[in-house]
Write a structure and sequence with these properties.
This protein is an alpha/beta fold. Helices cover 47% and strands 16% of the residues. The chain is built from 6 helices and 5 strands. Helix 3 (51-74) packs parallel to helix 4 (88-99). The longest helix is centred in the middle third of the chain and has 24 residues, at 51-74. The relative contact order is 0.22. InterPro entries: P-loop_NTPase.
Length: 165
């Protein structure tokens, strides 16, 4: 068996810049970029209207996505996942994808504070008006309650970035 690809994934509060960074990294690493938002909107058009809907459909997507990513990694291609890794459970899913086939992984932790994230969310609302209904301070505060910063005890290769780089 040849060299395996590396899976890259992100941790950071809503508005930290995960999608922007994932696009840049995919270019740098000559990697396949997989975006949860794109997959969900294609598979479940107009069906995600609440955070609960998102959780439901995201959970349905994960088993299929896991096998897909493992197949890509197994042929030696890097994969950048624009999927949230903001809780220990979410990060374990990424780690399982890699460890089950002995592929390498890298978690990029965009460690921005609430004020920085809210500023970027406000900017995103202006640039992408279609996101205005979801990109609110209320949604940010609700989602942030579930955020868990990554810890070394999780067995992850963590690269922490403290500001937009």
């Amino acid at each position: 068996m040849g060299r395996l690809g590396t899976i890259y994934f992100f941790c950071g509060k809503m508005g930290a810049g995960k999608s922007t960074k994932s696009k840049q990294l995919a270019i740098e690493k000559h990697a396949v970029l997989l975006s949860e938002d794109e997959w969900l909107s294609s598979l479940y058009p107009n069906q995600i209207t609440s955070f609960e809907d998102y959780l439901k459909f995201s959970a349905q997507l994960k088993p299929m996505m896991k096998k897909h990513v493992q197949n890509i990694l197994s042929v030696g291609t890097n994969v950048v996942m624009d999927f949230p890794g903001n809780t220990q459970k979410q990060r374990k899913w990424f780690l399982d994808i890699a460890s089950e086939i002995n592929a390498n992984h890298q978690l990029i932790f965009l460690n921005l504070n609430n004020e920085q994230c809210l500023r970027q969310i406000a900017q995103r609302r202006n640039e992408q008006p279609e996101r205005a209904t979801f990109d609110t301070e209320e949604t940010f505060m609700n989602v942030t309650k579930f955020f868990e910063a990554p810890e070394a005890s999780e067995g992850l290769n963590i690269l922490e970035l403290n500001e937009k780089e």
